[in-house]
Design brief:
Layout (H helix, E strand, L loop, with lengths): L3 E10 L2 E11 L4 E5 L6 H9 L6 E6 L2 E2 L10 E5 L10 H11 L4 H14 L15 H13 L5 E5 L7 H18 L2 E6 L2 H7 L2 E6 L2 E6 L1 H6 L4 H6 L6 E9 L3 E5 L2 E4 L2 H10 L3 E6 L13 E12 L3 E8 L2 E8 L9 E6 L5 E3 L10
Parallel strand pairs: 3-8, 3-9, 6-7, 7-8
Antiparallel strand pairs: 1-2, 1-4, 4-5, 9-10, 11-12, 11-14, 12-13, 14-19, 15-16, 15-18, 16-17
The chain binds adenosine-5'-diphosphate (ADP) and magnesium ion.
Adenosine-5'-diphosphate (ADP) binds next to strand 2 and helix 1.
Length: 362
């Protein structure tokens, strides 16, 4: 096991700046998720950590050791890919045993470890089958078993669940998480799926355009996104973004059609200090309620559309020419075109600088 430290790492492919200055410390034993849209550099960063790509600039340490120029096989890391990459001509047993055979472990030791690992993954009964005789989920378990059989210092997984169906993905994400907790192996997990990131990561590094935008605990990323991109990337349906004007009379207000927010002292102070006349207000759909609340900020509008999902209803409220999406728990009917007031607790308001898109509150 090892701590991984990435310092000023850049990776260019010709003109493409896949990684543009990455600094990241992954503590020993942690489960860290690299989260971001397709093309933001997640796979490239994993490949740099594993030694499959040469760095353009910067350094990578495993513990105290500078491994920047070490070959993959001397880094003691292993990878699991989206495509499983299990060998079709080998039985499950031999697939799992393969890394040990390469390293010339003796037969008894191989047998013991392969069977122990298969048991851990719940595939003991399958060791005599060929991959073609397995389901997608079972094949992915074989790939994970093969990756951990040698007890790597760092386990890396690149979108390992994206080829599985939705139900299996939910099951496997809890199993992988539990497995990692049991093994305590430092794990770096790549995904573009924010739910996987939120549910699996001890820490999440949100990436965009080859840069880490925010690194923190899932709850901090969710509650205190440091910019509009992160705020919009985490959460479904997406956070509502509303252009507001700052008006100052006796007290400070944020105004948009159907919305008049009296600023809290903290908001007023930050707005005054930044000299803002316009802002982008962010409100998560799950923070909008329809039960009147005198301590909350009202939003006046009409019901445009509602999606009844059974356990909750997604209500699209029309206010001026804006569409504001809310998630209302329960199975209530909201008639289209009827006036409706929604309520938002002031503490749930996010504010972003319209120029830099950075959060001004957190
Ligand atoms: N071998 C390569 N040659 C040229 N460009 C590459 C190569 N690998 C990745 N890239 C580019 O680097 C960027 C980051 O890619 P990647 O790390 O695969 O993103 P992600 O895994 O987040 O989807 C993309 O613009 C991609 O096209
Ligand atoms: Mg990728």
């Amino acid at each position: 096991m090892a701590e991984v430290k990435i310092e000023g790492v850049k990776k260019y492919f010709g003109d493409v700046k896949a990684l543009n200055g990455i600094d990241l410390t992954i503590e020993d034993g942690k489960f860290v998720v690299l989260l971001g849209p397709s093309g933001c550099g997640k796979t490239t960063l994993l490949r740099c950590m594993s030694g499959l790509e040469k760095l353009t600039e910067g350094k990578i340490f495993f513990g105290e050791k500078d491994v920047s120029n070490h070959a993959p096989k001397s880094r003691n890391v292993s990878m699991v890919f989206q495509s499983y990459a299990v060998w079709p001509h080998m039985k499950v047993y031999d697939n799992i045993a393969y890394p040990m055979k390469i390293k010339k472990f003796d037969k008894q030791e191989i047998k013991k470890r392969v069977m122990d690992t298969a048991k851990l993954l719940g595939i003991s009964e399958l060791v005599d089958r060929y991959p073609v005789q397995l389901s997608g989920g079972q094949r992915q378990r074989v790939a994970v078993a093969r990756a951990i059989v040698l007890e790597p210092a760092v386990l890396m997984m690149d979108e390992p669940l994206s080829n599985l169906d939705a139900l299996l993905r939910v099951l496997m994400r809890s199993e992988l998480k539990k497995l990692q907790e049991r093994l305590g192996t430092t794990t770096v997990y790549v995904t573009h799926d924010q739910v996987e990131a939120m549910t699996m990561g001890d820490l999440i590094a949100v990436m965009k355009d080859g840069v880490i935008q925010q690194y923190g605990k899932p709850e901090d990323i969710y509650h205190k996104p440091s910019n509009k991109f992160i705020a919009g990337f985490i959460g479904s349906p997406q956070m509502n973004f509303i252009d507001v004007e700052v008006k100052k009379n006796d007290s400070m207000h944020l105004l948009a059609p159907g919305i008049d927010v009296e600023c809290t002292p903290e908001m007023s102070e930050k707005i005054t200090r930044g000299g803002f006349s316009k802002l982008i207000m962010g409100i998560r759909p799950e923070n909008i309620h329809h039960v009147a609340d005198k301590n909350a900020i009202p939003i006046k509008g009409t019901v445009y559309f509602s999606e009844r999902l059974g356990a909750e209803t997604i209500v699209h409220l029309k206010a001026g020419d804006m569409r504001i999406i809310s998630r209302i728990a329960g199975d209530e009917v909201f008639e289209e075109d009827t006036p409706m007031n929604m309520y938002v607790p002031p503490s749930k308001i996010h504010l972003f600088d319209p120029e830099s898109e950075e959060s001004i509150l957190d």
